[in-house]
Design a protein that fits this description.
This is SURF1-like protein. By secondary structure, the chain is an alpha+beta fold. 37% of the residues lie in helices and 23% in strands. α1 packs antiparallel against α4.
């Protein structure tokens, strides 16, 4: 290996590393802006009067975070346990149940409860009979829209790794609205709230961006210092 080739190779490696680090930094800034806009949307929409299902059907664009008032019967024989949901460091389930209204069926996330000690057991949930009225917030599963796999067990109640509305329509043999209602008062079902629409604030993404930019600067400084030392040693 020729010594003269070393600075060129080191320069190429440094430039590639700096490009990657800068891209990661700008990506974190993009994420920070997304989180800022989402926080503004949450603050704005939580002041809105709860909508009806008819109101929701008239909305265009992003329907997340709108408050909703619904009334219908919960299908307690079709419970869906969303697996591996963590609250305060404890693993548990979020319980989703279909609700049948006058002319529509939608999914309602009743809330979170801790998992039993043994995997072959599912916790009991108190689902009221008859028609119930509840307020909630419109949410949508964050999984890949291209994936239809839920990783579900067979039979009811159903344990899934990720709710997929189109797949659940097939299992329930009925059409569903394209969102999940996050119940606003999980305590009435003996459950806890685990809804975290923004899991990381925008400021934290900015902090990560600063770290990536700092590493890019450090890579440039290290290269310059190493190049100068090598240049001086040749004199």
């Amino acid at each position: 290996m020729k010594l003269s080739a070393l600075p060129i190779r080191a320069l190429v490696v440094t430039l590639v590393a700096v490009a990657i680090l800068l891209r990661l930094g700008f990506w974190q800034l993009e994420r920070a802006e997304q989180k800022r806009l989402r926080a503004e949307q949450l603050a704005e929409r939580e002041q809105t009067t709860p909508l009806s299902l008819e109101d929701v059907s008239k909305l265009n664009g992003d329907i997340r975070d709108y408050p909703l008032q619904v009334r219908g019967a919960l299908l307690k024989g079709r419970l869906i346990y969303w697996d591996n949901r963590v609250l305060d460091g404890q693993v548990g389930y979020e319980v989703i149940v279909p609700m049948v209204t006058d002319d529509k069926t939608l999914l309602v996330n009743l809330g979170w409860l801790a998992a039993p000690a043994y995997r072959d057991q599912l916790p009991d949930v108190s689902v009221p009979q008859g028609v119930v009225s509840l307020k909630g917030v419109i949410t949508q599963p964050s999984g890949s829209p291209l994936s239809r796999e839920m990783g579900q067990d067979s039979g009811w109640p159903l344990r899934v790794q990720q709710p997929n509305i189109s797949r659940l329509e097939e299992l329930l043999e009925r059409p569903l609205m394209n969102f999940i209602v996050q119940a606003g008062e999980p305590e009435r079902f003996g459950l806890a709230s685990n809804w975290r629409p923004v899991t990381m604030p925008a400021q934290k993404h900015v902090g990560y961006a600063v770290q990536w930019f700092g590493l890019a600067l450090a890579a440039v400084v290290i290269f310059i210092v190493a190049w100068r030392k090598r240049h001086q040693s040749k004199r």
